[in-house]
Design goal:
Blueprint lengths: L5 E7 L3 E7 L5 E8 L3 E3 L2 E3 L2 H12 L7 E8 L5 E3 L18 H11 L8 H10 L10 E3 L1 H10 L3 E3 H4 L14 H12 L13 E3 L10 H7 L15 E2 H8 L7 E6 L3 E6 L12 E4 L5 E7 L4 H16 L6 H12 L10 E3 L16 E3 L8 H26 L6 E5 L9 H9 L3 E3 L6 H15 L6 H9 L6 E3 L3 H16 L1 H10 L2
Parallel strand pairs: 1-6, 6-11, 9-10, 12-18, 18-19
Antiparallel strand pairs: 1-2, 2-3, 4-5, 7-8, 12-13, 13-15, 14-15, 16-17, 19-20
Helix pairs in contact: 2-3, 8-13, 9-10, 10-11, 11-12, 11-15, 12-15
InterPro entries: ATPase_NBD, FGGY_C, FGGY_Carb_Kinase, FGGY_N
GO molecular function, one term: kinase activity
Pfam families: FGGY_C, FGGY_N
């Protein structure tokens, strides 16, 4: 390892594929990116895998890859990628966004005694069995998007424990798949014709800091056709965006948590004890080191805010004014600070897709107001921001109030928090906990997986991931922390009363607008 050695992290997010090169001090040296979008095909959300590879190559194209001596792959968690014995894809990639797996989720949750969310890989597999899909009889390997890319780069069918926990429940003692639950699943699946043990279909679990294979000649050429990236480079275990988000925010120790806001929005809180019982609103997953985490995952995040910002930007252009997207967002978010604390009687729903927490299989974005509700910019934008956090609050209330889970601080990251002091303030008010932001998480999961690759390379003995982050990565990092404002908290609570009551309108819109 020379003084100029670097690590490379790539992440396939919901709307953008990113690549980050970091130095020995974990500082960002260079970044690359490529936009991509999911498609709704045959009533299922998917991405063509050829687009993933084209995007990865585009993201890496302008980077200096000659000094890379460790790398890692991250991608959106969950979903379903199924392959036959020859490595051929059996059905288009089914993403975390799909909510067609309700019957499987309900049946598995009841049998296993743990909440099995709609988007988990095992729910997709079991739903395919329930639907008697032809391809299920030929399944030889099931993995996530990160696990797939890692497999193609290394030839190794492995997965990081954090990403694995979005495929099948993890035993907190062994930090591998729960054996008792595997046996229960096999009993259920046998009655539907699947006789191969599930464990034989899943990738092998690896913990942060453990070896997970090396880059092959074919893998290096697939990622970087120019030949700058050397074969033989070690890879850390592939992780989901939730796990790399925890790393990017140093939220891997008990009583710490983070919120990631993008196309989806989710919160991760590291637990210091078991929950009293299963909750439909809470997923039990793990950190990349295998420690238990409660996750509140909402399918709908900032996409509707993005759509409104684009509309206002188009209006500015129609007036003959040129404004960057950053300026538009900063102006709209700034106006929200002057809006009515309770949203002024306005309601907004950001549901572009189904939302399991509120038991909706599909979504219809809505803005609703009574005749007496004021329609002015500040209150409108505050309502839109509240809407982005509303479903998250429903789940977090279960965790913090019903379960009494301890949480000292929440770290927020994602594009929603780039305009300083707005979304951060409203989130603190909604959750009633201090919320911190910092530039260190600016590159998100791509930086987080690059740090995990550095941990693989630099780990000393049995050093823990939490210690590595505390002593090598985040020491001396300054964060901006906002305490909850009582008027925001009271206003958000009033908004939530209307929001929950108005879900009947959202359900009616789904039924009426096809």
């Amino acid at each position: 390892m020379g003084p100029g050695s670097t690590t490379l992290g790539v992440e396939l997010g919901s709307t953008r594929i990113k690549a980050v090169v970091i130095g020995r001090d974990h500082g960002v040296l260079a970044t690359g990116g490529h936009d991509w979008e999911n498609a709704f095909v045959d009533r299922l959300w998917t991405y063509p895998l050829q687009d993933a590879w084209a995007g990865l190559r585009a993201a890496c194209a302008g980077l200096d890859l000659g000094a890379v001596d460790a790398l890692g792959v991250s991608a959106m968690m969950h979903g379903y990628l199924a392959f036959d014995a020859d490595g051929e894809l059996l059905t288009p990639f089914r993403t975390w966004r799909n909510t067609n797996t309700g019957p499987a989720s309900e049946a598995l949750s009841e049998r296993l005694g743990q909440n099995i969310p709609h988007r988990w890989s095992v729910a997709h597999l079991y739903q395919a069995l329930l639907d008697h899909e032809e391809h299920v009889g030929r399944v030889a390997f099931v993995t996530t998007l990160a696990g797939y890319v890692h497999w193609q780069l290394t030839g190794e069918k492995v997965i990081g424990v954090g990403d694995a926990s979005g495929m099948f429940p993890i035993d907190p003692t062994t930090r591998g798949y729960d054996r008792a639950m595997l046996a229960q699943f096999d009993e259920l699946a046998a009655g539907l014709g699947l006789t191969t043990p599930l464990v034989d279909l899943l990738p092998t679990v690896r913990l942060a800091g453990e070896a997970a294979g090396v880059l092959t000649e074919e893998g290096a050429a697939r990622l970087d056709p120019t030949g700058r990236l050397r074969a033989g480079v070690p890879l850390c275990p592939p992780e989901g965006d939730a796990g790399t988000g925890m790393v990017a925010t140093a939220s891997v120790a008990p009583r710490t948590g983070n919120v990631s806001a993008g196309t989806s929005i989710f919160a991760m809180v590291v637990l210091e004890r078991e929950l009293s019982r299963p909750h439909r609103e809470l997923d039990l997953v793990t950190t990349p080191a295998g420690d238990p985490v409660a996750m509140v995952h909402c399918n709908n995040g900032a996409s509707e805010l993005q759509a409104w910002a684009q509309l206002f930007g188009q209006f500015a252009e129609a007036l003959g004014t040129t404004a960057s997207s950053e300026k538009v967002f900063a102006t709209l978010f700034g106006a929200a600070l002057d809006g009515d604390p309770d949203g002024g009687g306005l309601l907004a729903y950001n549901y572009l897709s189904g939302e399991p927490i509120t038991e909706l299989e599909e979504g219809r974005p809505l803005v609703v107001r009574t005749p007496g509700s004021p329609l002015e910019l500040g209150t409108f934008m505050r309502t839109q921001l509240y809407s982005a956090f509303a479903t998250l609050k429903i789940g977090m209330d279960v965790l913090l109030e019903d379960e009494g889970v301890g949480l000292d601080a929440m770290f927020a990251h994602g594009g929603l928090f780039k305009t300083k002091g707005v979304a951060q303030r409203f989130l603190a008010g909604a959750l009633r906990v201090p919320v911190s932001v910092g530039d260190v998480a600016g590159e998100g999961g791509a930086w987080g997986i690059a740090v995990l690759a550095a941990f693989l390379r630099d780990r000393e003995g049995d050093q823990t991931l939490a210690d590595y982050l505390d002593t090598r990565v985040f020491q001396g990092v300054e964060l901006a922390t906002v305490e909850p404002d009582p008027s925001d908290t009271a206003g958000f609570d009033a908004f939530m009363e209307r929001y929950v009551a108005g879900l009947a309108v959202q359900r009616a819109a789904v039924d009426a607008l096809r």
